[in-house]
Backbone:
């Protein structure tokens, strides 16, 4: 797009880093004719993370929860440029960023406004051996890796004699972290064993053990006590070996070392899934370092109530998991609402910038200048309210077609637990959250396929 509008006013460059929940909700609502928009991300698709744990075991196809970013961008008016690259350096003073593509080609991009929505990465708490041996469940390639590892272990175990001790070892699937990711992953693995493998490989399925390891006295800490107790009982009944108060201290190629009541124990494993939460990415840490006078929290970027980055308020915004503010949890729900909010902020900023340009024209009279100032004040005061998060509730799948939910409707709290209705509700909510009709249809079709033909076994 041209760098100026028809009247000669400048069209500013807006660079968006990321193609996740925050970036996509911003892009969906943003008027892309008002800016030169450049999207930079190493991932040329959006990933619907709430259903990621259903993909390694074939309940849902991985492709069904991926939406090419270009499909999203082609529906926008005006031109939006997408560059497949990682942002590696940000210079907030001179307003430029360095980006590097997969082939190590680098480019420098100038920006007028920058939006950081780079998310976060899986954390290991520097526990030795985790990065080398465990599989995370955060990105699409994690799902592919886990699927391969599970299938390999199943076939290797089937090859061995029934009394070979290696067999049990290969068939022990350990999930570390009893947050929602770990619980949903363990539930999907146990469903896979109970519903699919028991038919395809009955001898193997009998020997599979799914273990869920949590360092604290209970799982799912963000939920109400009733729901936690219900889920823990339910999980135990579903044959998952739930190990509470069990803190992982080290990971070897086939054994994890845990601490229980200050005593060291060893748990052998065949597949290890790591889900102990998130930490800031390098790009986030680097930016915080540059603005270290005000960026003082190691958990994420500090922003104000208008989602402007502290230390670079006039040009950088940050949303989603890369931020830490207001006690908000790093969830898709938060990132999505922040993205929608920012789209409106950019609409108003465009108006302010246009007025600013007009005020600098040589032909402008004193009266017109006063008029412009009044308009600007009105916009700032009335059209740019602070961001207000509206919590709608939390859902989690707990296995065997059961879910739990905490909901906030018209200011009142409600709970759903375990009933078939809770599971149906879980499905409807996730279908409604899909970012495209294509995703909604594909996920619905996968659920139908699962119902009639079972899981995808390849
Ligand atoms: P992301 O969605 O992670 O997007 C970050 C983007 O930035 C990606 O496109 C990435 O490729 C890109 N990027 C990374 N580094 C760079 C760089 N250097 N330069 C440019 N771009 C970069 N939340 C819920 O509310 N409900 C749920 O049910 C739920 N389920 C989940 C299940 C799983 C398995 C996981 C892992 C998370 C789940 N979450 C859920 C959390 C939710 O996914 C995150 O809170 C959400 O993705 C945050 O959005 P974001 O835009 O900040 O980051
Ligand atoms: P989390 O931070 O919520 O949970 C991690 C768990 O790992 C904690 O319970 C912690 O005590 C445990 N842990 C940490 N170190 C350990 C160790 N060494 N040994 C044993 N246990 C250890 O992480 P998550 O589940 O990945 O979730 C990340 C974010 O994504 C959260 O904000 C969550 O709300 C969101 N999310 C939401 C949903 C949902 O709404 N259904 C699903 C997935 C993720």
Residues:
């Amino acid at each position: 797009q041209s760098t100026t509008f028809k009247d000669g006013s400048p069209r500013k460059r807006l660079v968006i880093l990321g193609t996740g929940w925050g970036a996509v909700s911003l892009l969906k609502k943003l008027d892309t004719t008002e800016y030169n928009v450049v999207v930079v991300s190493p991932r040329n698709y959006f990933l619907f993370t709430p259903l990621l744990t259903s993909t390694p075991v074939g309940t849902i196809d991985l492709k069904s929860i991926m939406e090419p970013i270009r499909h999203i961008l082609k529906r926008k008016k005006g031109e939006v440029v997408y560059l497949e690259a990682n942002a590696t350096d940000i210079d907030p003073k001179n307003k430029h960023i360095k980006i590097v593509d997969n082939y190590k080609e680098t480019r420098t991009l100038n920006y007028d406004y920058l939006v950081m929505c780079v998310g976060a990465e899986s954390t290991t708490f520097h526990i030795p051996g985790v990065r080398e041996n465990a599989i995370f469940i955060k990105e699409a390639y994690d799902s592919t890796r886990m699927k391969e590892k599970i299938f390999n272990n199943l076939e290797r175990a089937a090859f061995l004699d029934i009394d070979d001790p290696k067999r049990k070892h290969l068939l022990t699937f350990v999930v570390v972290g009893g947050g929602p990711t770990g619980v949903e992953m363990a539930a999907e693995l146990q469903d896979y064993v109970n519903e699919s493998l028991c038919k395809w490989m009955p001898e193997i399925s009998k020997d599979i053990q799914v273990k869920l390891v949590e360092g604290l006295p209970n799982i799912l800490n963000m939920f109400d006590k009733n729901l936690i107790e219900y889920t823990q009982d339910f999980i135990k009944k579903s044959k998952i070996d739930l190990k509470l108060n069990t803190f992982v201290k080290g990971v070897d190629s086939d054994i994890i070392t845990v601490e229980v009541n200050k005593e060291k124990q060893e748990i052998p494993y065949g597949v290890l899934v790591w889900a102990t939460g998130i930490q800031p990415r390098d790009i986030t840490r680097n930016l915080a370092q540059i603005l270290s006078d005000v960026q003082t929290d190691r958990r994420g970027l500090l922003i104000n109530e208008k989602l402007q980055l502290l230390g670079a308020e006039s040009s950088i915004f940050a949303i989603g998991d890369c931020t830490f503010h207001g006690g908000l949890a790093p969830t898709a729900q938060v990132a999505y609402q922040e993205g929608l909010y920012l789209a409106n902020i950019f609409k108003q900023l465009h108006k302010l910038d246009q007025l600013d340009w007009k005020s600098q024209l040589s032909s402008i009279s004193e009266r017109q200048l006063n008029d412009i100032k009044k308009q600007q004040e009105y916009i700032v005061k009335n059209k740019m309210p602070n961001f207000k998060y509206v919590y709608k509730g939390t859902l989690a799948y707990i296995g065997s077609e059961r879910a739990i939910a905490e909901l906030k409707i018209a200011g009142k709290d409600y709970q759903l637990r375990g009933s078939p209705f809770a599971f149906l509700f879980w499905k409807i909510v996730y279908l409604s959250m899909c970012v495209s009709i294509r995703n909604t249809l594909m996920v619905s079709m996968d659920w139908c396929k699962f119902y009639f033909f079972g899981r995808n076994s390849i």
Notes: The mean pLDDT is 95.
